[in-house]
Design goal:
Blueprint: E1 9-13, H1 18-28, E2 33-38, H2 44-47, E3 52-55, H3 60-69, E4 74-78, H4 93-102, H5 109-122, E5 126-128, H6 130-133, E6 143-144, H7 151-169, E7 175-179, E8 182-186, H8 191-196, E9 205-208, E10 222-223, H9 225-233, E11 238-241, E12 247-248, H10 251-261, E13 264-267
Parallel strand pairs: 1-2, 1-4, 2-3, 4-5, 9-11, 10-12, 11-13
Antiparallel strand pairs: 6-13, 7-8, 7-9
Helix pairs in contact: 9-10
Length: 268
């Protein structure tokens, strides 16, 4: 069930399928939406059929103006945006002044995104999480699909949850690879897709967990069809997502793919 309508929703859209899913769900619930699509991250198909503006990542003044012009009451951040280096940013004046204030938290994505939400709320917009618009995306503690982890995999999942939370505490990532009780890979700036492209990870379990204490409105761990296909291609045995703190996108397709490849997928 989607969240009850509360004014026009502004969707700050990065990559992947989540922004489109949020937009479609909001419209189905009777809401108006306006997508602020980040150039270089959001795909054109995401905005098709929806009111939208394309925005440079650091064009904060234009972002504020577009949200006001569209009369958005609430905002949601949806979809990954790989943070560029400082030298790559081309901020407008508002973005430059805000960037100076954010430099002291630049080292951690979760802190940075939470601070960005606080700045948006200071401009009069109410920030919500994607899981508030689409609560059915939240992973629950169960097996998804036909395959269950064996005793060895369950031990790897337990070890992986501990390791992923420690990694998140340092704000370095949200995912680890575990095999035979040993962490053999950790997510870095390249994200889960880069982690799954590493060599020598066959037989491992992918475990994703939220950063301890993070604002749940931003950057919850996600998995979907692309994650399953990449895990299968890498020879993994399964995927575990932290129940209540992770999102499973394209659920039917992802579960069907996991079943087809013989992977387990669980909320843990």
């Amino acid at each position: 069930m989607t969240r009850r309508a509360s004014g026009k929703l502004g969707i700050l859209a990065g990559g992947g399928s989540l922004p489109r899913a949020v937009a479609d769900a909001a419209v189905a619930a009777g809401r108006q939406v306006h997508i602020l699509a980040f150039e270089g991250f959001c795909e054109p198909a995401t905005v098709a059929g929806h009111a939208h503006d394309w925005i440079g990542l650091a064009k904060v003044g234009r972002l504020f103006a577009a949200l006001r012009a569209a009369a958005c009451a609430e905002i949601v951040l949806a979809g990954p945006v790989q943070r560029p280096g400082l030298a790559q940013l081309r901020p407008d004046w508002t973005g430059f002044s805000i960037l100076l204030r954010l430099l002291r938290v630049w080292g951690g994505d979760a802190s940075l995104l939470s601070r960005v939400l606080a700045l948006l709320e200071a401009q009069g917009f109410r920030a919500v999480g994607a899981h508030e618009i689409l609560p059915e995306l939240l992973v629950v503690a169960k097996t998804y699909g036909a395959h269950n982890p064996d005793a060895a995999a369950l031990a790897d999942i337990a070890a992986g949850l501990v390791a992923a939370r420690l990694l998140g505490k340092r704000e370095r990532g949200q995912a680890v690879l575990v095999r035979a009780g040993t962490v053999i890979g950790e997510e870095t700036r390249g994200g889960t897709s880069a982690l799954l492209r590493r060599s020598g990870i066959a037989g491992a379990v992918l475990v994703k967990a939220a950063m301890p204490g993070q604002d749940r409105r931003v950057d919850l761990p996600t998995a979907g069809l692309a994650t399953v296909e990449a895990a299968a291609a890498a020879g993994l045995v399964g995927i575990a997502l932290e129940a209540g703190n992770a999102l499973l996108l394209d659920r039917d397709a992802a579960v069907a793919a996991a079943d087809r490849h013989g992977l387990f997928m669980v909320g843990a």
